[in-house]
Amino acid sequence: MGMYASLTSVLDRALVRTPAATGDRPLGRRAALVLAIATTAAATAVVTAPFSAAGGMDPDLVRLLHAMVGIKGIIALAAAALVYWRLGHPIARPVAIGYGTAICISVAALAWLWTLASIPLGSLCFYGGLAGLILVGRFDSGLSAGLGG
Q1: Using CB atoms within 10 A as the burial measure, which of 30, 47, 62, 87 is most buried?
Q2: What is the pLDDT of residues 69-115, one digit of tens each?
Q3: Structural domain of residue 107, as residue ranges?
C-alpha cells in the first residue's frame, strides 16, 4: 500500500465517524475563515519582513517577481472564494478545519513570497496549500453535491 492509499484510508475512517455537519452556523464559519486568513497574512508579513531580499535586486526583477506573486494571489483568492462558499453549507468539522488550514498555508506563503526571500521554499508552501485543498476536497461529500455532481 502506497503512502497516498494509506493516508486516504486513514482520512476515510476518520470522516466516517464524524457527524455529517457542524451545525447551521455558516456566518460564524465564514467569519472565522476571514479572520484566520487576515491574521495569517498579517503575522507572516511581520515575521518575514526583516528577511526581505528585494533591496539587493534589480528594480525591474522585483516588479516582475511581485507581479508573479500577484498572479498567485489571484489563484489563492479564487480558492478562498470556493472555501468561503463551501463554509456556507453544512460541513463536517474536520473538513472545515482542513480547508481553513490549507488556505492559510497558501496565504502565509504569499506573504512570504512578497518579501522575495527563499522563493523556491515559499512557492513549495503555496502549492502545498493548494494541494491540501484538493486533498481535503476529495473527502468532502458536500462539495461534489453542491456542485451538482
Answers
A1: 87
A2: 999 999 999 999 999 999 999 999 999 999 999 999 999 999 999 99
A3: 25-146
The rounded distance, in Å, linking the Cα atoms of 52 and 69 is 14
How far does the chain reach from its first CA to its final CA, in angstroms?
A: 29
In a domain, 9, yes or no: no
On whether residue 19 sits in a domain, the answer given is no
The span from the CA of 90 to the CA of 69, in Å, is 33
Interval 9-62: pLDDT, tens: 655 665 554 445 556 789 999 999 999 999 999 999 999 999 998 888 999 999
Residue 57: in which H helix or E strand, if any?
none
Question: In total, how many domains does the chain have?
Answer: 1
**Residue in 103, 102, 101, 86 with CA at minimum distance from that of residue 140:** 86
Task: Give a yes or no: residue 12 inside a domain.
Answer: no
